[in-house]
Amino acid sequence: MALRIQVLPKAETAGHLSALADLRLTVFRDWPYLYDGDAGYEARYLATYAASADACIVGAFDGDRLVGAATGSPLEQHEAAFAAPLKARGMDPAEVYSCAESVLLPR
Q1: How many Cβ atoms sit within 10 Å of the Cβ of residue 25?
Q2: Is residue 84 part of a domain?
Q3: Residue 46 lies in a domain
Q4: Total structural domains in the chain?
Q5: What confidence tens digit (pLDDT) does each residue in 34-91 have?
Q6: What end-to-end distance do the CA atoms of the chain give, in Å?
Q7: In 3D, which of 58, 40, 47, 37 has the Cα closest to residue 17?
Q8: Global pTM?
Q9: CA–CA dist 8, 11 (Å, integer)
Q10: Which domain holds residue 37?
Q11: Do 76 and 94 form a contact (C-beta atoms < 8 A)?
Q12: CATH number of the domain that 23 lies in?
């Protein structure tokens, strides 16, 4: 398998969110996560990446199929609950870039 790794251009981000949601659900469903998420939550969660000018999605593709991804965004543009522990310790979330997830299908 020859993988193609690329940073997804902002104009293409929205077009890959459904595949990214499926990938996250597949990877996170297995051990050690055992996360039984749902498509609705994934759509809302991943919409933050499409909405943020400074978010980044790096995709790993086998042909046209998304088989891996890494995501990141400025913490202050992500879910507020993620910034709360830093704020509680006097850190400024505006100074943190969150490397959120890295997921890859096992094979």
Answers
A1: 17
A2: no
A3: yes
A4: 1
A5: 888 888 999 998 988 888 889 999 999 999 999 999 999 998 887 778 888 989 999 9
A6: 10
A7: 47
A8: 0.84
A9: 8
A10: 3-71
A11: yes
A12: 3.40.630.30
